[in-house]
Structure formats: C-alpha cells, structure tokens
Amino acid sequence: MDNIMKRFVHIPVFVFLLLSITVLAQEKEREKFDPTRDAAKDIENAITRATKLNKKILLDVGGEWCIWCHRLDEFILADKEIDSTLHANFVVVKVNYSKENKNDMVLANYPKVAGYPHFFVLEKDGSLLLSKNTGELEQEKSYSKEKLLSFFNVWKTKK
Question: For residue 12, with 0-12 CB atoms within 10 Å meaning exposed, 13-18 middle and 19 or more buried, which class applies?
C-alpha cells in the first residue's frame, strides 16, 4: 500500500512540471537586433511575405544597446492583444543600427531617424508610408497600450 501511495504523490509533481515546461515552450522570446543580418535581404523577403499575406511591413530600427528598444519589445511580448494585433497585420523586420553595422545603405532609402527605436511603415510593395518616432508611443518609463494599438490599427491593411 505504501508503494502505491508514493507513486500517487509523484503524479501531481510530474503533471505540474509537464505543464510548466509546456507554458515556457509557448512563450515567445524577444527577437534581437542582429548586426550580422542582411537588412536589404530581410526587407526583400518581407515584401514577398507581405504581398502573399496582404499585410503591411513594419521596419523596427534599433539595436541591442538601446534600452527603449528592449522596453518596447518586452512591452509588446507581455501583452497578447498588442502582440497579436501587430503580427496579424504586419510583417515585422528588425533593422539593426549599431557600431558593428549601421545599415547605412538600407537606411539611406528612408527619412533620417532622430531616435531609437524607430518605425517605418511600408506598403506591401515596400514603398514608404510613414516614418514614426516611437517616443510618441511612450508612457512614463514604458509604452502606452492604447497608443500602440491605435497606431497598429490605423496603419494596418484595410481588408
């Protein structure tokens, strides 16, 4: 009888661990700004995907050195409504700007960036629609859910 009881005690622990692993595996990880990526190729691929999916393109320009870039990424990931609205309507391309790779050739095609992170909204064919200072989407030491959702909803493709 004691052996049977010991086995049953382990079942809840096993179930808890299994559920914890499943939840952790489903959590999205923040995509990093990568100085080794080919931003021109990434944008070209985004145009292909956006055309196929009938979405606009959001270029997210920043770097791993940028605290506000991290705050924005973490804010979006932490809120399922913002994250799903963003990815349901845009093909997102992270464009690195750092000492290692300023992506001068790519960024020369767009208006000058005053601060980071910075958004460029592109039509599915890659044409520029908007240059957006993300400072306008901030609230205190973070971002505003209402402002981000409004921004994404105003600029999404009307279906």
Answer: exposed
Quote the pTM value: 0.83
Backbone angles phi, psi at 96, to 5 degrees: -70, 140
As a whole number of angstroms, the distance between CA 130 and CA 58 comes to: 10
Average pLDDT, the chain: 89
Residue 18 lies in a domain: no
Domain assignment of residue 103, given as a range: 29-155
Count structural domains, the chain: 1
Q: For residue range 35-76, list pLDDT tens digits in order.
A: 999 999 999 999 999 999 999 999 999 999 999 999 999 999
Q: What's the CA gap between 43 and 48, in Å, rounded?
A: 9
Handedness of CA 76, 80, 85, 87 (dihedral sign): positive
Q: Rg (Cα) of the chain, in Å, rounded?
A: 20
Helix/strand/coil percentages in the chain, nearest 5: 50, 20, 30
DSSP code string of 104-127: HHHHTTSPPP-SSSEEEEE-TTS-
